[in-house]
Amino acid sequence: MVKENLIFELETVGLTNLIRNYVDYNLWTNITLVNWLKTKPKKLLEKEVISSFPSVVLTLKHMYKTQGYWFAIINEKYDFDPEKDLFTIDEVMSCLVEQSAQIADYVSALTVKELQEPVLVESPWFNCEFSALEYIMQFVNHNTYHRGQLVSIGRQLGFTDAPMTDYNFYNIMAK
How far is CA 137 from CA 12, 21, 32, 86, 142, in A? Predict the structure, then answer.
């Protein structure tokens, strides 16, 4: 019984550390991409190209709003208005990084129990009940998907110097 409890404790500590590292990675990579994008002409960041979101700025707005939606799901105290429009590219980039930092701080303070606690979501699009941990993984994976799109959009705009933002790179080189 003692051995089983120790294994369980080690597994939950490992899981907690992993998810905290994951949101720290999300913050780092959002900062890294925003800093890269800040070196580009703003007109190009608003230029439409063929993609699921047709510009850098629209992709960033989507990332901000979706990340905020999921953060409000796991943190009822987070006051998020999905209808608020961010008008400038500087606003969007700043808000995405600030929100990512708030998430990293919030998640670092969660207990194992809080991470594993089920959270009910009832929306016009779907109903589900998963752990806070799974919702965190959802929006970090979602951001990763769109960060890849940002690099692809950048290539269409002539940007050939995208930074390395792989999770493994973060763990080995960036931490």
Answer: 16, 11, 20, 25, 8
Contact 82, 27 (CB under 8 A): no
If DSSP codes are grouped into helix, strand and coil, which group holds residue 106? helix
User: How many residues are there in the chain?
Assistant: 175
Q: Nearest to residue 51, comparing CAs of 157, 151, 149, 143? A: 149
> 167-171 contacts: CB < 8 A, separation 24 or more?
167/22, 167/25, 170/25, 170/28, 170/29, 171/21, 171/25
- At residue 51, φ and ψ (nearest 5 deg) are -170, 170
Claim: this prediction has a pTM higher than 0.85: yes
One-letter amino acid at 108 equals S
Helix (H) or strand (E) holding 4: helix 2-37
Using alpha carbons only, how large is the chain's radius of gyration in Å?
18
For residues 32 and 163, the answer to whether their CB atoms sit within 8 Å is yes
Tens digits of per-residue pLDDT, 67-120?
A: 999 999 999 999 888 888 877 999 999 999 999 999 999 999 999 889 999 999
